[in-house]
Backbone:
């Protein structure tokens, strides 16, 4: 199992797609199914990172040949203190310890505090805090990455919150894990953002964007809500995934985690297999 490297990335899987399976069946069963679906690299997220769980992850990794490439943190949790996983403010020492135990270099954060959203100063404060924690982590050989959604693209005096984060974080301390679906949903071009962040995006989330008319009797709500938008298997949506992957490779991505927030009743491992098959059909089988 060759490690990813700049210009020759490896496809991976984000745990959000199989989180309930991990909660119910644990790492051994989950990693076996991930490997059978065609992937060998895995991002841990939304998990209680106990010592027992870490040992199970290490054992399952060795048994099934699935390597953990990143762990996840909360940054003053947006949805309350009950969220699974680490709080970087409270658990920094534990985060460092666990990542070293797992042999993982990437620490990913996907949400900023509520106090930082909807106001320009909040994004400056978030950038300052990300720099602070990024410095503490890099001193321990770890790298902090921020994973976007769509809400960071609210504009303030002509600039989006995401631009403020990018422009006010130190590239040596903070990287960005572009999520191409959320970039698209925010009304921006994923390929342009991947190119803009070349060198700061070791991790790029592959997530397709599908339009599907909702079931049942149609109502005028379809023009006011996101009812027609779905998360899709790679190659089954409307994004130009071939151009996205090519841009990520050119920009130096090391890992390309697949993510699909919802599978709409379909077995997630079947969805993973579909994504893997489509990635091979696009000519990127060498990155599996």
Residues:
């Amino acid at each position: 199992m060759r490690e990813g490297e700049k210009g020759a990335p490896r496809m991976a899987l984000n745990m959000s797609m199989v989180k309930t399976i991990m909660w119910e069946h644990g790492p051994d069963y989950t990693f076996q199914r991930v490997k059978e679906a065609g992937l060998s690299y895995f991002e841990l997220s939304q998990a209680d990172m106990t010592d027992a769980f870490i040992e199970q992850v290490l054992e399952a990794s060795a048994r099934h040949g699935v390597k953990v490439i990143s762990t996840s943190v909360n940054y003053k949790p947006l949805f309350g203190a009950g969220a699974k996983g680490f709080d970087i403010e409270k658990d920094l020492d534990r985060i460092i310890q666990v990542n070293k135990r797992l042999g993982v270099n990437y620490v990913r954060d996907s949400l900023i505090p509520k106090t930082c959203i909807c106001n320009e100063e909040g994004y400056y404060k978030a950038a300052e805090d990300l720099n602070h924690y990024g410095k503490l982590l890099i001193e321990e050989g770890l790298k902090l990455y921020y994973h976007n959604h769509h809400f960071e693209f609210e504009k303030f005096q002509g600039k989006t919150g995401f631009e403020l984060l990018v422009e006010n974080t130190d590239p040596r301390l903070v990287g960005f894990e572009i999520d191409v679906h959320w970039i698209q949903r925010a009304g921006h071009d994923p390929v342009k953002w991947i190119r803009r962040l070349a060198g700061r995006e070791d991790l790029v989330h592959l997530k397709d964007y599908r339009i599907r008319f909702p079931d049942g009797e149609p109502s005028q709500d379809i023009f006011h809500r996101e009812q027609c938008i779905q998360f899709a298997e790679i190659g089954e949506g409307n994004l130009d995934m071939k151009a996205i992957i090519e841009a990520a490779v050119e920009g130096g991505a090391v890992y390309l985690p697949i993510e699909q927030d919802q599978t709409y009743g379909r077995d997630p491992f079947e969805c993973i297999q579909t994504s893997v098959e489509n990635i091979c059909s696009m000519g990127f089988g060498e990155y599996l």
About this structure: The CA atoms of residues 149 and 182 lie 5 Å apart. The radius of gyration is 18 Å. The first helix runs from residue 19 to 37. The chain has a mean pLDDT of 95.
